[in-house]
Amino acid sequence: MMLVLVSAACSTRPHAIVTPSVPAQPATKKIFVINHGWHTGFVVSASDMHARLPALQQRFPAATQLEFGWGDHRFYQSENFSSGLALRAILWPTATVMHVVALPADVQRHFPASAVREVCLSPVHLQGLLQFLASSFDHAHGALPQPLGKGLYGDSAFYPGAGGYHLFNTCNVWTARGLKSAGFDITPSLHVTADSILRFLDGQDGRRCAPTTSARDTR
Fold first, then answer.
1. Which of 116, 184, 191, 217 shows the smallest number of beta carbons within 10 Å?
2. Which residues, other chains included, contact 122 with Cβ-Cβ below 8 Å and sequence gap of 6+?
3. Structural domain range at position 202
4. Is 204 helix (H, G, I), strand (E, B) or coil?
């Protein structure tokens, strides 16, 4: 068992994306981080993600926003919490899935029972996050894989995910890698719980969107 866990610790796909160094850009691209209690995920503009993964536009043509989550293939798809499934997911490397949900524009109202954090990114850091989300799907055969079935709520679906789920590679570590891909100075291995993700975001200065300049303001 110890050998399995040590070997798994070296398996950290999907990897965080290293964004290129560019001159400072205003943070005008809005995303959201959602905490559903035990699991965290991202919400991004559907049009931004459709441009990177056109197959998602075919599946979610009317979506305004898309929510993405990553986790253990059995535990995540189970409708009922099971301590046995949770323990198996943590202690033994398992296959993963991506959960994709079509959302309306008002994300915070759509999730009244979940903690939602609005985060704003520069254009280059948004592209880093989008690339990370795209790489979190299993692209073993080149194209986006076919859905495994309906998701947990709303207009949603599960897809085969990249990488393995285990003690050192949990859903919240995945979210932290997404934040790192989005330009945040974060150590993913230190953020294994949903609460730690929110505490990190709450401690970040400058995460609010920069005000946009209208045509009237430039006259």
1. 217
2. 24, 25, 26, 27, 28, 29, 183
3. 2-16+26-206
4. coil
Classify burial at 7, counting beta carbons within 10 Å of its beta carbon; exposed 0-12, middle 13-18, buried 19 or more: exposed
pLDDT of residue 187: 93
User: Does pLDDT of 31 surpass 60?
Assistant: yes
Q: Which residues does 192 contact at the CB level (< 8 Å), separation at least 6?
A: 170, 172, 173
Residue 77 lies in a domain: yes
**Number of independent structural domains in the chain:** 1
- Name the band, by pLDDT with cuts 50, 70 and 90, for residue 142: low
Reported as type and span, the H/E element at residue 208 is none
Q: pLDDT at position 219, please? A: 29
pLDDT of residue 2: 33
Chain mean position to CA 76: 14
Q: Is 186 within the bounds of a domain?
A: yes
Find residue 44's DSSP bridge partners.
Answer: 66
Contacts of 2 (CB under 8 A, 6+ apart): none
